[in-house]
Specification:
The complex is a heterodimer of chains A (about 325) and B (about 240).
Chain A lengths: L1 E10 L2 E11 L4 E5 L6 H8 L7 E6 L2 E2 L4 H6 L1 E4 L11 H11 L6 H12 L14 H13 L5 E5 L7 H14 L4 E6 L2 H7 L2 E6 L2 E6 L1 H8 L5 E6 L2 H9 L4 E11 L2 E8 L6 H11 L3 E6 L4 H10 L2 H11 L1
Parallel strand pairs in A: 3-8, 3-9, 6-7, 7-8
Antiparallel strand pairs in A: 1-2, 1-4, 4-5, 9-10, 11-13, 11-14, 12-13
Chain B lengths: L1 H13 L2 H23 L6 H20 L4 H6 L2 H5 L5 H20 L1 H10 L6 H26 L5 H24 L4 H10 L1 H9 L5 H27 L1
Helix pairs in contact in B: 1-6, 2-3, 2-6, 2-7, 3-8, 3-9, 3-11, 6-8, 6-12, 8-9, 8-11, 8-12, 9-10
The chains are: A alpha/beta (about 325), B mainly alpha (about 240).
């Protein structure tokens, strides 16, 4: 379990993380989203004790990261943005080093073999890390985080550098790990977060701008469930029929999309579902309904809407510093 | 601590650094051994010990300590160290111990020289051990200084240069003393800091508590400063 209360981090006058609070329960996967420079990596570095906060409390499974750093750190597996690999060691030497560093007390060969199997790095076990490709290095970095079976996993962009098949594998792996671990995962790839995470925190300019499940977020931010429809037929007549359908508050025409086919956006009246009435009205008048789709906001739209607001401000700040 | 120690010591030999350090120590002290003891026909190793001081300071210690902290920062492996359940003191002491062990292996060659002499005449063993002990104390102190300098930068080259300049300053302190010939206070300060004089005491067979305490406390001071610098980085 991870508890963060009123966490703030200042670099001089720059506020990288501004009074954020959240909780991650055991068995939950939290997606941490934000544009570059939003404070994701800083927050993760504070959670793992690599940086210290200016103020605020971080508790890992009940251990305060400042007051009981060793107990708290023993509970964390951390994969930083750039995996902390000793390039002139072999994978075997490196994982053994991390095993010693974390003071693990398992059956060493068995534990390392299990992790290598999970990460699919058995066949590079005796190779020098500096000779490995980016994808393998990323997986060795992930393996390093898993050593010692820590109950809390903090993963900073875990799928960077992997090929599409490996990305899918990795997502499944994280999902499985999430059943028994507390996981925080940061990413730029929105479908990934949507696919893997139970809950999403969007951070921008050091502040949390959203904290909810993906479906709740899209329901909340697309308050009117507009429908986009394509109907074949003369624009004026179709428009007339559409605006008289029961439950439709307003109609906007988006113009001709195919030959003789026009696209319309329909805004429903509060709480009404007009799809059946729409079909009936069009079939009675003999116009063909060619398409009907919900204009619900995707996570991508929400992300852009939420993080764009503060953009001009940050640009101004950067300009001043120059 | 032991994990850090093991890894650092191993890294000396997976990179050329360990070999370069050993070659320098073996080669140059071998040269002095040949010149003074074999060719010069002397049984006393003290000349060798006082001659190795300057090249140890200017060459060996900068190379020995340059990558200890700086390389971790450059490769970001410090993230693994600092987020592992190990204290900062453990990390610093582990790295320090690895450098000291390599240094001890290097200067153990002087004991081999002593045995070679013992084949002919019986050397003054107390003097040999006194010399060895003096060089070890001095070395530990300079390694601590080098470790401290290495944690201030990400570049091995800057770290080596910094330790070189610090060592150079240690050698120059005595010449500074003559500049302050008018001030008894400044002269006593220079005398106190004079590493050369304190080390020379050992090579002439004089082992004094204040020399031992000076070297040990300077070593502790720089190890402490290293831990503080690492800790402070987290707060910035």
């Amino acid at each position: 379990m991870i508890e963060v209360q009123n966490l703030t981090k200042r670099y001089g006058s720059l506020c990288a993380v501004d009074d954020i609070s959240f909780r991650v329960e055991e068995g939950e996967i939290l997606g941490f989203l934000g544009p570059n420079g939003a404070g994701k990596s800083t927050t993760m570095n504070i959670l793992t004790g690599y940086l210290s906060s200016t103020s605020g409390i971080v508790k890992i499974n009940g251990h305060d990261i400042l007051e009981e750093p060793n107990e708290a750190k023993a509970n964390i597996g951390y994969l930083p943005e750039q995996p902390p690999l000793c390039l002139d060691m072999t994978v075997k030497e490196y994982l053994n080093f991390v095993y010693d560093l974390k003071k693990c007390k398992f059956n060493r060969t068995k534990h390392l073999a299990e992790i290598c199997k999970l990460m699919r790095i058995e066949h590079v076990f005796n190779r020098l890390i500096k000779n490995l490709s980016k994808g393998y290095r990323q997986r060795v970095g992930f393996a390093q985080a898993l050593i010692g079976n820590p109950p809390v996993l903090i993963l900073d962009e875990p799928t960077v550098g992997l090929d599409p098949n490996q990305i899918i594998e990795m997502r499944t792996l994280i999902k499985n790990l999430g059943k028994h671990h507390t996981v925080i995962l940061s990413s730029h790839i929105l479908p990934e977060v949507e696919a893997v995470c139970d809950r999403i925190v969007i951070i921008n300019g050091g502040k949390i701008v959203a904290d909810d499940t993906a479906s709740a977020l899209s329901a909340h931010y697309s308050s009117d469930r507009r429908l986009l429809t394509r109907v074949a037929g003369e624009e004026k007549r179709v428009y007339d029929i559409l605006s008289h359908v029961d439950g439709v508050a307003s109609v906007t025409c988006f113009g001709e999309k195919e030959n003789g086919v026009f696209e319309y956006a329909l805004v429903p009246e509060e709480g009404s579902d007009f799809r059946r009435a729409l079909f009936a009205a069009l079939s009675q008048s003999g116009f063909a309904l060619l398409g009907l789709k919900s204009m619900e906001m995707s996570l991508e739209d929400i992300f852009i809407a939420l993080t764009r607001e503060q953009l001009p401000q940050t640009t101004r700040k950067g300009g001043k510093q120059k | 601590m032991s994990a850090v120690f093991k890894r650092e010591f191993k890294t000396y030999f997976t990179s050329p650094i360990g070999y370069v350090v050993l070659a320098l120590i073996f080669g140059l002290s071998g040269f002095y051994f040949f010149q003074y003891n074999l060719a010069g026909g002397m049984a006393d190793l003290s000349y060798l010990f006082s001659s190795v001081l300057s090249f140890m300071l200017l060459l060996v210690f900068p190379i020995l300590t340059m990558r200890l902290m700086s390389d971790d920062k450059r490769q970001k492996t410090d993230q693994a160290l600092l987020t592992a359940p190990v204290g900062l003191t453990g990390i610093v002491l582990g790295k320090f111990a690895a450098a000291v062990l390599l240094f001890i292996i290097g200067i153990s060659i002087t004991l081999v020289f002593a045995f070679i002499i013992a084949l002919q005449v019986n050397p003054d063993w107390m003097l040999v051990f006194g010399n060895f002990f003096g060089l070890l104390l001095l070395g530990d102190m300079v390694i601590a200084i080098g470790l401290f300098i290495s944690c201030l930068t990400e570049s091995q080259f800057i770290a080596a240069l910094g330790t070189f300049l610090a060592s150079f300053a240690l050698l120059m302190i005595d010449s500074l003393g003559s500049l302050f010939s008018g001030s008894a206070f400044m002269q006593s300060v220079v005398e106190f800091l004079s590493v050369y004089k304190r080390y020379a005491n050992f090579t002439t067979g004089i082992i004094q508590y204040d020399d031992i305490i000076f070297f040990l406390s300077m070593q502790a001071l720089f190890l402490f400063l290293t831990v503080r610098v690492l800790d402070r980085k987290r707060w910035n």
